[in-house]
Automatic annotation (TrEMBL):
<dbReference type="GO" id="GO:0030674">
    <property type="term" value="F:protein-macromolecule adaptor activity"/>
</dbReference>
<comment type="subunit">
    <text>Interacts with PEX19.</text>
</comment>
<dbReference type="Pfam" id="PF04882">
    <property type="entry name" value="Peroxin-3"/>
</dbReference>
<keyword id="KW-0962">Peroxisome biogenesis</keyword>
<dbReference type="InterPro" id="IPR006966">
    <property type="entry name" value="Peroxin-3"/>
</dbReference>
<comment type="function">
    <text>Involved in peroxisome biosynthesis and integrity. Assembles membrane vesicles before the matrix proteins are translocated. As a docking factor for PEX19, is necessary for the import of peroxisomal membrane proteins in the peroxisomes.</text>
</comment>
<dbReference type="GO" id="GO:0045046">
    <property type="term" value="P:protein import into peroxisome membrane"/>
</dbReference>
<protein>
    <recommendedName>
        <fullName>Peroxisomal biogenesis factor 3</fullName>
    </recommendedName>
</protein>
<dbReference type="GO" id="GO:0005778">
    <property type="term" value="C:peroxisomal membrane"/>
</dbReference>
Length: 357
């Protein structure tokens, strides 16, 4: 019995060897595949966790952006009111001066100017802070990333403070430069009446004049572009100061990009549209008026003398630069194109440089 079995094995030895090798190979291949599958699963899980962490950090950063904009609106309003002080003129008018007409002319120009400046400045503030805080946010994400190749922080606290202080240019020189455009000509009579449609046309003309007469892009009002000024803002040439200048130059590149120009224009369109919506409240026909408010010519149904429109225009800064969330600011903060632009900036600066090459 054993002899016949042995003879059978000898006769089929090659088959047994091949079968054994095949089974062993399949086993080893299976173990290798199982190992690779586990590695892929672990890598995907790690990437998913990293992406979720990155998304959470981005969303948190956007909330910080919104809160920062709201917190800076009082300073923006104060800067505009200080440079375009209409209150002193209204006080003078109450004293019935001899040059009353001249004061009214000045009040007309200042009222329109500061409202237009308020729209421009608020839109610029929203988009500028989106750029700055998402550059900082991207670098902070890299600084706190697991497996970061260097221990040197990309955005230490001192650098962040120096960098973000550059916003003072918008609150100072930026507003001073913007308000040089005098939007309402003196030949417009105070007795002239305007409908809402005519007022909108006037505002559109003012905007066209401002943007057409500017020899530089609107980003010029946001950040000082002189290299010496950038160096002065960075307060010297220490390592932190060099990092600050680097951030400022990166910001300048973003402000000069077509995407920034597009997003700022979207905000300005929305801002002036909201301004006109606010003004429309003062042009509603009286409740007893038989003409329906939804009539096609309703924008021309009510006309007001310019002398009455001036105080309305003059008071718009309280709505435009309100730190209490208003429709004006909320629509800018929640705009989809602003959000998409912010995401692109964050993506650019939160991606390791070796992956960008």
């Amino acid at each position: 019995m054993f002899s016949s079995a042995w003879n059978f094995i000898k006769r089929h030895k090659k088959k047994f060897i091949f079968t054994g090798a095949l089974i062993g190979g399949v086993y080893l291949l299976g173990k290798y595949a199982q190992k690779k599958f586990s590695e892929i699963q672990e890598r995907e899980a790690t990437e998913y966790i990293a992406q979720a962490r990155r998304q959470f950090h981005f969303e948190s950063n956007q909330r910080t952006c919104n809160m920062t904009v709201l917190s800076m609106l009082p300073a923006l309003k104060e800067a505009i009111v200080t440079q375009l002080n209409s209150e002193s003129l209204t006080t003078l008018l109450k004293s019935k001066p001899a040059n009353k007409l001249e004061i009214w002319e000045d009040l007309k120009i200042i009222s329109f100017t500061r409202t237009v400046v308020a729209v421009y400045s608020t839109c610029m503030l929203v988009v500028l802070l989106r750029v700055q805080l998402n550059i900082i946010g991207g670098y902070l994400y890299l600084d706190n990333s697991v497996g970061k190749s260097t221990t040197t922080p990309l955005a230490p606290p001192d650098v962040q403070q120096q960098y973000l202080s550059s916003i003072q240019h918008l609150l100072g020189d930026g507003i001073a430069l913007t308000q040089k455009h005098k939007p309402v000509k003196s030949f417009v009579s105070l007795k002239e009446t305007w409908s809402l449609l005519e007022l909108e046309q006037q505002l559109n003309w003012i905007r066209a004049e401002v943007e057409a007469s500017s020899r530089r892009s609107l980003s010029w009002y946001l950040l000082a572009d002189d290299e010496n000024v950038l160096a002065d803002q960075a307060c010297g040439l220490t390592e932190n100061d060099i990092m600050t200048i680097k951030l400022l130059n990166e910001t300048r590149d973003m402000l000069d990009s077509p995407d920034f120009t597009t997003v700022l224009k979207v905000c300005l369109n929305r801002g002036f549209s909201r301004l006109c919506d606010n003004l429309a409240e003062f042009f509603r026909p009286p409740p007893s008026d038989s003409a329906p408010s939804c009539a096609p010519d309703s924008l021309s149904a009510v006309s007001l003398p310019l002398a009455k429109i001036i105080p309305i225009i003059n008071g718009q800064i309280n709505t435009i630069c309100s730190e209490t969330p208003s429709h004006f600011v909320q629509e800018l903060l929640m705009n989809d194109q602003v959000k998409e632009f912010a995401a692109n900036v964050y993506e650019t600066f939160s991606t390791p440089q070796e992956l960008q090459k």
